[in-house]
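Sorry, any thoughts here?
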Amino acid sequence: MPRRKISEYRAKRIVTERLGIGYTGWPVLFETMADDIEMIDHPGTFVVKVDQAVKGRFKKGLVAIDVSKDSIADKIRSMYEQGYEHFLVEPFVAHEQHDERYLSLSLTKSGIRLSSSVRGGINVEDNAASIHTITIDDAIDWHELSGQSGWSEEWLRRLVSVFTDEYFAFLEINPYLLQGDQLSLLDLAVEVDDAAALMVDSWSADDMRQPPRTLTDEEQAVARLGEKSPASFNLQVMNPDGAVFLLLSGGGASVTVADEMYSAGYGKQLANYGEYSGNPTEDETFLYADAVLRLLLRSHAPKKVLFIGGAVANFTDIAKTFAGIIRAIHQHADELMEQEVKIFVRRGGPNQEKGLQMMRDTLVQYGLLGGVYDQRVQIGQAVAHSLRELE
């Protein structure tokens, strides 16, 4: 995916350094837990939490507060038994819940959107009316924004600067505390544009995190397919009950399509990510498409779209690979019609006219046609057409 979560430890190191407020925290890996804990040297008690891109950690019991140093290992061990291996230990900051505040930055097509609330914490979503949201532009009133968030104008400018300089796509601080002129970032989540990994020194692929999970049967089938074929196949389930499913060809195009989905506000409805490339055979493409369609049909989303896409291929035979996808559509046609799925196609390359016409005829036959486009329609436009089906 173009957007990947990095560890909270790395995110805090980057942000606090740019803000000039200092940070104390220790990353702990279960395999080296004893040595990592030995390095912790701080008076008082600690917060121990999973640092593995998990949302709602407190409600899931993945955060322990007011922990003595002697108890850190036991807390980590209990979380490890739930499948986690990356942890973060920080000094415990005593405070009242009503002092917790919220601030976030997100990258959108219209610019960087900043949201803030004086009622942060684990129940911030219950206080949606308290959240103020603006777009950062030349007309922004930094003084007014400072009053709303409690941050100084200088802190706000520095935060926006690090967001852009470090290729962040999303940043959420929930909660933070303001105690006099002291700012404490208790919880910080950051998503980066992973395509920028070669352009920054502050974070790398080693800092990226994802929650542990068991692979679906479809993901395992695609992994086995990739191991046996000279072509490339990968599939990742992101939201089993998502509304937008992708059947993409080529890494570059797959990144573009997924990014367009996120930018349009449909990131949470994106069910899967992956791609096939390297001129696979018709049978291989059939197996890959079959896996994606099985995931789609199992989703409980009330409306669903399938986007079949890619850039203009150099040597992949469009007619041949589409023949494999069409076989999978034939196999699942009754269920696809019953669930009123709409399918959108955008592709170009060798034998594209034949392949696109085959696809159009099949989708018309079953009443599944959303749209079929060649390279004259930009990928972003084709994505936009598909998402209108969900409105």
Notes: The first helix runs from residue 8 to 19. The two ends are 24 Å apart (CA to CA). The chain has a mean pLDDT of 93.
